Amino acid sequence: MSGARAATNARVGRQRTTERIVASAGHAWSADPYADALHTGRGPLFLRRADGWLLPLDVERWCAEADAADLEVLRRCEGTVLDVGCGPGRLVAALGAQGRRALGIDVSEAAVEHTVRRGGQALLRSVFDPLPGTGGWGTALLLDGNIGIGGDPGALLERLARLLAPGGLTIVETVPYPDVDERALVHVTDAHGTPGAPFPWARLGTPALLRCARGAGWRAQEQWSTGGRSFVALRGPGATGARARPGRTTAGGAHRAG
Ligand SMILES: C[S@@+](CC[C@H](N)C(=O)[O-])C[C@H]1O[C@@H](n2cnc3c(N)ncnc32)[C@H](O)[C@@H]1O
């Protein structure tokens, strides 16, 4: 086989693997435990690793109104906002109420239905599917652990760089423990242990996110913590610098990222 053909086959193989992974994740998040929790507005709901370790999912907070920490994130958004993995849509609804243009995307039908019922705009799509406004979004949101989507944060950031306008902003919520840098196969499960299909997921503390983002051409603009949650604003590749906000130190603990 020629080198060129081998490289093409490898690329196609990788793409098919990604498509399979994303399809299995879509299936898992569309399955009953997640949809049921969104309908009742209550957990318990978990991501479960193969070794039995459980990560509680904050369904009650996701189904409530945007809280003070969310509003601090929304205040930093620029231009049109794409909420990746919008869940039941509290952020899209809050942005809409502020007269901002926002779209939620999610692979869960229940999540999209809830977002639309709250008055937000949402599409049943994976972030890796063709999306409207590609190359023009002002801000992408990856909150509530959504940097984990697809299990490969580098690939997700690369995808967002293509969805955003050059120099656009991505705001990522990180795990509030600095040492976390984890990739694992997980499934969504409820209190009865109802198993869904396993899918790859990632969890990153701020240092791991910054390492990954720098490697993909992103610049850390600001980091802050509030209400026990931690966030990083990343400026996308192609920034002119003109849109960069100055670094700040506030009572909420915001500072310029290194
Ligand atoms: C950890 S939950 C976060 C929920 C959410 N941010 C909220 O406000 O309720 C992850 C969300 O991402 C969605 N998701 C998973 N894979 C996705 C993908 N490839 N593209 C878009 N959304 C995805 C799930 O359906 C789920 O709603």
UniProtKB/TrEMBL annotation:
Molecular function (Gene Ontology), one example: methyltransferase activity
Stretches the record annotates as Disordered: 235-258
Superkingdom classification of source: Bacteria
Pfam families: Methyltransf_23
Sorted UniProt keywords: Methyltransferase, Transferase
Species per Swiss-Prot/TrEMBL record: Streptomyces griseoloalbus
Protein name, as recorded: SAM-dependent methyltransferase
Annotated GO biological process: methylation
